[in-house]
Amino acid sequence: MRPRELVEYALNLLLAKNMSAFAGLWAEDGVLEFPFASPGYPSRLDGRAAIHEYLRDYPAVVDIRAITRQQIHETVDPAVVIAEFAVAGVAVHTGRPYRLSYIAVVTVRDGEIRHYRDYWSPLAAAEALGGVDELMAAFAGGRDA
Questions:
Q1: What is the rounded distance in angstroms from the CA atom of residue 32 to the CA atom of residue 49?
Q2: Cα–Cα distance for residue pair 141/145, rounded to 1 Å
Q3: How far apart are CA 37 and CA 41, in angstroms?
Q4: Cα–Cα–Cα angle for 142, 31, 14, rounded to 5 degrees
Q5: What 3-state class would DSSP assign to 73?
Q6: pLDDT by residue (tens digit) across 23-61?
Q7: Which of 3, 27, 39, 53 is deepest in the core (most CB within 10 A)?
Q8: Conformation bin of residue 33: beta by default, left when phi > 0, alpha when psi is -120 to 50
Q9: How far is CA 19 from the centre of its chain?
Q10: What angle do CA 93, 11, 45 make, to 5 degrees?
Q11: What distance in Å separates the CA atoms of residue 2 and residue 123, rounded to the nearest whole number?
């Protein structure tokens, strides 16, 4: 699967709340990074198992109901794509609207995600989830870089 197709498929899995399959797209030693992570929030996850653990309860935290915008840019490196997308849903525990925009820089090799750099706003997510403590408690795993 080409990088663009893999990222489109990944977004469909996110919308379908199939986090196991979503995490399964990563290479065994793949990396997921959060450059804008708040102190104490994981800034890097190493390996498919850590990514799976981090994402495991995502649908119990955020009910993504729609991808409201999606654009995938191919780059001069055929293994790298940049995905711009926005989601709409509900923060499960607060009932507040969850509307967030993301930019992801994704490297795909041999049909697997090798590296995924996820640019999103922790402050916007914390507001929907009920505060920074709730955001920090919502997700497991990771380590600070």
A1: 11
A2: 13
A3: 6
A4: 85
A5: strand
A6: 999 999 999 999 988 777 889 999 999 999 999 989 988
A7: 3
A8: beta
A9: 10
A10: 70
A11: 33
Residue 23, token pair as written in the block: 């995490």
Over 60: is that where the pLDDT of 140 sits? no
Paired tokens of 17: 């709340």
Structure token digits, residue 49: 């198992």
Tell me the backbone φ, ψ of residue 105, rounded to 5 degrees.
Answer: -105, 115
135 or 116: whose pLDDT is higher? 116
Distances (CA, A) of 34 to 5, 9, 105: 22, 21, 11
**Residue among 89, 91, 83 nearest 118 (CA):** 83
**pLDDT score for 142:** 42
Q: In what order do the strands lie in the sheet with 44-46?
A: 44-46, 26-33, 112-119, 97-109, 80-91, 62-74
Give the closest residue to 89 by CA, choosing from 117, 61, 116, 70: 61
The whole-angstrom separation of Cα 80 and Cα 61 is 29
What percentage of residues in the chain have a pLDDT greater than 90? 68
At 138 the pLDDT is: 64
Q: Which residues pair with 86 in a beta bridge?
A: 69, 101
